[in-house]
Amino acid sequence: QGQFKPLAGSNPYSGTIDALKTVPEWRVELVVADDLIMDAVHAMKSAHPYEVPAYDVIKLADF
């Protein structure tokens, strides 16, 4: 689970100002062709309900 505390002046998607909020989190892993990586990142950002999602892009070696 993740948690956050919306600060004064924010417009939280979930929770209330100055109150700690706990929410479920999910880990998503994808295998994506090189030419589709940016499309996948943009789709994830578009679907994310608040601010900035945490993500990593890891290129795997092909042996």
Automatic annotation (TrEMBL):
InterPro entries in the record: DUF34/NIF3_sf, N-reg_PII/ATP_PRibTrfase_C
Protein name: NGG1p interacting factor NIF3
Source species of the chain: Candidatus Ignatzschineria merdigallinarum
Lineage, opening ranks: Bacteria, Pseudomonadati, Pseudomonadota, Gammaproteobacteria, Cardiobacteriales
